[in-house]
Amino acid sequence: MEKSEQDRLREEVDEVLHGSKGAAQPPQVEEQNACSNVRHVIGVVSGKGGVGKSLVCGILAVNLARRGARVGILDADITGPSVPRMMGLAGERARAVDELLVPNRTAGGIKVMSANLVLEHESDPVLWRGPVVAGAIKQFWSECAWGELDYLLVDMPPGTGDVALTVFQSLPVDGVVIVSSPQDLVQMVVGKAVNMANLMQVPVLGLVENMAYVECPHCGERIYPYGPSRLAETAEAFDVEALGQLGIDPALAAACDDGTFERALPEGLLAEATDTVVRVAEFVDAVRGGTGA
Ligand SMILES: Nc1ncnc2c1ncn2[C@@H]1O[C@H](COP(=O)(O)OP(=O)(O)O)[C@@H](O)[C@H]1O
Ligand SMILES: [Mg+2]
Questions:
Q1: What is the CATH number of the domain that holds 250?
Q2: Exposed, middle or buried: residue 287 (CB in 10 Å: 0-12, 13-18, 19+)?
Q3: How close is the Cα of 262 to the center of ligand 1, in Å?
Q4: Cα of 23 to ligand 2 centre, how many Å?
Q5: Does 227 reside within a domain?
Q6: Is residue 47 predicted with pLDDT exceeding 70?
Q7: How far, in Å, from the CA of 55 to the mean position of ligand 1?
């Protein structure tokens, strides 16, 4: 990337953080409560909404749970929460015990906290302003009884605005996976996400390209409606790992809608991205001396 472009993005992030130019503050992480021992927090981010961030978050969570890990999902997309429906928890409400929120559990044992689990009606629009949204995310971390978790996946707020920055500042994020769709790869959208992570000093685990192709249901041939994949090229340009691709899969979209996703998810999707999450977690454990979070 051009130096001048990087400087511009740095200024943009600084402006969001401080209302003026200046160096980004080191994160001031919120404490975990006595009912939570979360070993690794992994964020799933995108430069904009609708690219499949929640889907990738869900796939990583199910893959990790199938490998035997204890997994939670913090749905930090407060104004567009989609995790409960996808994970078969539509219509459920979270309980509160001793001033702590208790996450709901999927059939497969994944714990979920989301605005949709605390709103009175699932279809209520969330009209909260930025600081209230940021406060809700902090609360889902510091006032939620997560119990023992190996991984807490955070479905980050879309984009690179102040709410996304709050998550980076208040949660001890080990690393982020960036999701983008083919058209975004050539744009600055990926660059914004990478720069936000860099400025917040959060490692980028790599890039997942979603909706990269469609498979012909008759012959299995892959059609690339947006042209040939630019994943490798984009990953190289921003100096991040290419973690894999997802095609457009109508069965997967249906499973997200009807809540059968956890059961219906085919084996092997985003296996490499899942391996990377595990590897980074093991590395972090080794650095911490295996003492946990
Ligand atoms: N690879 C895919 N195949 C089919 N449908 C997809 C795919 N990726 C995303 N979708 C669908 O597109 C919509 C947006 O995806 P979602 O993961 O909610 O995006 P985001 O969280 O980035 O806003 C959802 O309805 C989802 O089921
Ligand atoms: Mg989403």
A1: 3.40.50.300
A2: exposed
A3: 15
A4: 30
A5: yes
A6: yes
A7: 6
| Domain with 45 in it | 35-281
User: How many structural domains is the chain composed of?
Assistant: 1
Task: Tell me the torsion sign for CA atoms 139, 142, 147, 148.
Answer: positive
Q: What is the pLDDT of residues 56-82, one digit of tens each?
A: 999 999 999 999 999 999 999 998 899
pTM confidence score? 0.90
Which chain residues have CB less than 5 Å from ligand 2, an ion? 54, 77, 82
- pLDDT at position 21, please? 44
Classify residue 291: in a domain, yes or no: no
Residue 26 placed within a domain: no
Q: How far is the CA of 51 from the centre of ligand 2 (A)?
A: 8
Question: What is the residue with the minimal CA distance to atom 26 of ligand 1?
Answer: 253
Residue 223 inside a domain? The answer is: yes
pLDDT of 230 over the 90 cut: no
Instruction: Kindly report the protein residue whose alpha carbon is nearest to atom 6 of ligand 1.
Output: 253
Q: Provide, rounded to the nearest whole percent, the portion of the chain with pLDDT above 90.
A: 65
Mutation test residue for ligand 1: of 256, 269, 270, the one with most atoms within 8 Å of CB: 256
Report how far residue 82's alpha carbon sits from residue 85's, in angstroms, rounded to the nearest whole number. Answer: 6
pLDDT tens per residue, range 108-151: 999 999 999 998 777 777 777 888 888 999 999 999 999 999 99
